[in-house]
What we know:
The protein is an alpha+beta fold. It has three helices and four strands.
Amino acid sequence: MTSSRERARLTVYSRAWCHLCDDLLAALRPICDEFGAVIEVVDIDSHPEFEEAYGERVPVVVGVETELCHYFLDATAVRAYLLNFR
C-alpha cells in the first residue's frame, strides 16, 4: 500500500489531433477527481521518444508502468487500480 499522502498519478499518452484522446480525458477526469488522482497528459508528438511505443495506439492510460487501457476508457480497470493505490 501507498502512503495516504501520496496521490495516484495516471499518465495519458495522447496526441493533440486525437478525438478519442479528448473523449477519454473527459471521462477520466471525474474518476480521478473522485479518488484525488493526478492526470499527466503526454503529447507524443512533442515527445518523439514515445512514438515507437505508442504511435497510433493513443490514447493510452498508464499507472506506474502498467497499461490500464487504450483507445477507450476502461473505467473498471482504472477504478480497480485507484482503489488498490490507496
